[in-house]
Amino acid sequence: ALSPDGSQAAYVVYDEAGKRYQVRVSPAQGGEPTAVFNITPVNFLHWTPDGQALLYREVAAGSDANSTLLM
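-> structure tokens emitted (71 positions)
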């Protein structure tokens, strides 16, 4: 997901070493991540209109319930 001002990109990767998914935020022009979150979003990753936070949806292990969270 590209931030509203186009300066940052948030994306999901699988961390082989940690055996988990992560959300990473990097400069849109490339470079090292500026933030790494050890969360597993499911089909929803969206910037707030001011570009200060990300919304994501996760599913609790062993549950069909979804939570939409702000980070």
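The chain has a mean pLDDT of 81.
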